[in-house]
Design a protein that fits this description.
Number of strands: 14
Number of helices: 19
Strand content: 5-15%
Number of domains: 4
Helix content: 40-55%
Radius of gyration: 29 Å
Structural class: alpha/beta
Length: 501
């Protein structure tokens, strides 16, 4: 969802004008007729999430300066843009000293307001991201660093917070890329072991013959190549937390020693004569069903019940689409800071397309997509064209139907024929004939190249919508600039027949 702006003004006409400009700028808007009403809104038990405030300085009752003071006292770190009439420079100076982010002069134009809002939102996101980076470098993350507005995610986090206050073994389940290690770090950082080591181990990336040495350590000369003593991850994490990512990938022999370590609090380094006492909290994670691994004989049942005392399931990103906008802005601020780029926003169209994307790689894929967009973009705002994977899904989705029937016979590659190979009705208006189809096979009985299929889909859409390029782009779920770029690429190749000759 778009950022929500609170407009505070006692003048109903001015309030309505600002509300209209904010909505036209693509943001959500909430209004209040004065400082007292605004503070009640911001501090109430059912307070909405407000991303920025546009505040009139001169109001009866609680004025703008008074509201800024109350926001500061209530620790409300929300960027504020103050409005002032001509000649009110003294009040502006006082407001800026009181914590205002920016000021605009009445009557403000929409372009000036858009710039001010964009800068305020970017600065706020950047400040929050810098604080997260600092905490991350200090080795401490808490639940306040986790971004979500999703009910299922919030319920999981409440359970995780309870787990942080105890020593209960935690198993975090979820697809790759959903942020299982982030949850583990928050549990560690919110508990009494926060100042102690947090050691993460990817069990699926360790060669089988090195698992015991890496986890439990080894003595010098314990095996060929052991030229030095190695302490192992358990001893390294002593006093703190050991995070075993992809724990289901451990070989059975290592599972036996892990079970002993969990039960007794002792580890036995390879080649050691005596066990070593360790004080470690274990948090495990898996992207596979451990109970299925148990049934298949690949994971010990007794170890499963030792680790599976409290299970936390992190929902995939496609099930928490309301978080995508916030996460995108979070990553934008972070990568702009890291890459020294001045990209202030993501367009409304791009945000809608990002929310509609399935994100099979979850939050990690979104993070990488924003990183690429920040590095490659030449504009001051990211658009849908800066995320090429969005167009990939649009083309793939266009070729999918609920009932796909393919006749495995050669078909001429050029014209759009009537038949029953692949209905392409989802791309067109409801009035499109149901018999329209797209041949999959060449005359040589080979699958046709994807770019050739894409070309025919684009040509068909242009003909069907009579050259209305905005409608063509909307129906194909790509940006207009992407459509024109694809047409330029098509024109640079050998023309593909559209059936008109």
């Amino acid at each position: 969802m778009a950022a929500t702006i609170l407009v505070v003004d006692d003048d109903p006409v001015q309030r309505r004008l600002l509300e209209n400009m904010v909505q036209r700028s693509g943001y959500g808007v909430v209004t209040a007729e004065g400082g007292d009403a605004a503070m009640a809104l911001l501090t109430g038990s059912d307070a909405p999430v407000i991303d920025a405030v546009v505040l009139d300085l001169v109001m009866p009752g609680l004025d703008g300066l008074g509201m800024l003071a109350k926001m500061r006292a209530a620790h409300l770190a929300i960027p504020v843009i103050v409005q002032t009439a001509h000649g009110g420079i003294d009040n502006v100076v006082s407001a800026m000293r009181g914590g205002a982010q920016d000021f605009v002069v009445k009557p403000v134009g929409i372009e000036r307001l858009q710039v001010s809002l964009r800068n305020a939102l970017t600065a706020s996101a950047l400040k929050g991201e810098l604080q997260r980076i600092k905490r991350s470098r200090d080795g401490v993350l808490t639940f306040s660093d986790i971004i979500t507005r999703n009910a299922a995610m919030a319920a999981m986090l409440r359970s995780a917070q309870k787990a942080a206050a105890s020593a209960i073994p935690v198993l975090i389940e979820g697809e790759s890329g959903v942020g299982k290690e982030l949850i583990a770090r928050a549990v560690h950082g919110s508990g009494e072991r926060a100042a102690k080591p947090f050691v993460a181990v990817n069990c699926g990336a360790i060669p089988d013959n090195l698992v015991e040495s890496i986890l439990f350590g080894h003595e010098k000369g314990a095996f060929t190549g052991a030229t030095e003593r190695h302490t192992g991850k358990f001893i390294e994490a002593s006093g703190g937390t050991l995070f075993l990512d992809e724990v289901g990938e451990l070989p059975l022999a290592a599972q036996v020693k892990l079970l002993r370590a969990v039960q007794t609090g002792e580890v036995e380094p390879v080649g050691a004569r005596h066990p070593v006492r360790v004080d470690v909290r274990i948090i495990s994670a898996t992207n596979r069903s451990l109970i299925d691994r148990v049934k298949a004989g690949a994971f010990r049942e007794d170890l499963f019940y030792r680790l599976h005392v409290l299970a936390l399931t992190v929902p995939p990103l496609r099930q928490r689409r309301e978080d995508i906008v916030q996460l995108t802005r979070h990553f934008l601020a972070r990568f702009c800071a890291e890459e020294n780029r001045a990209i202030g926003a993501v367009t409304a169209e791009a945000l809608q397309r990002l929310k509609a994307f399935d994100w099979p790689g979850n939050v990690r894929q979104l993070e990488n997509a924003v990183y690429r967009a920040v590095v490659m973009s030449e504009d001051d705002a990211l658009g849908a064209d800066d995320f090429p994977q969005l167009a990939t899904q649009a083309v793939a989705g266009a070729l999918e139907t609920k009932d796909m029937k393919v006749e495995w016979r050669p078909a001429a590659p050029a014209p759009l024929l009537n038949g029953s190979e692949i209905p392409i009705a989802p791309l067109a208006a409801p009035a499109m004939p149901a018999a329209a189809s797209l041949p999959l096979m060449t005359a040589d009985d080979e699958v046709r190249p994807l770019d050739e299929l894409e070309t025919e889909i684009i040509r068909f859409a242009i003909a069907h919508y009579r050259g209305q390029m905005s409608e063509v782009a909307r129906r194909l779920r790509i940006g207009r600039s992407t459509l024109y770029r694809k047409l330029d690429a098509i024109d640079g190749k050998k023309p593909v027949s559209d059936g008109s000759s």
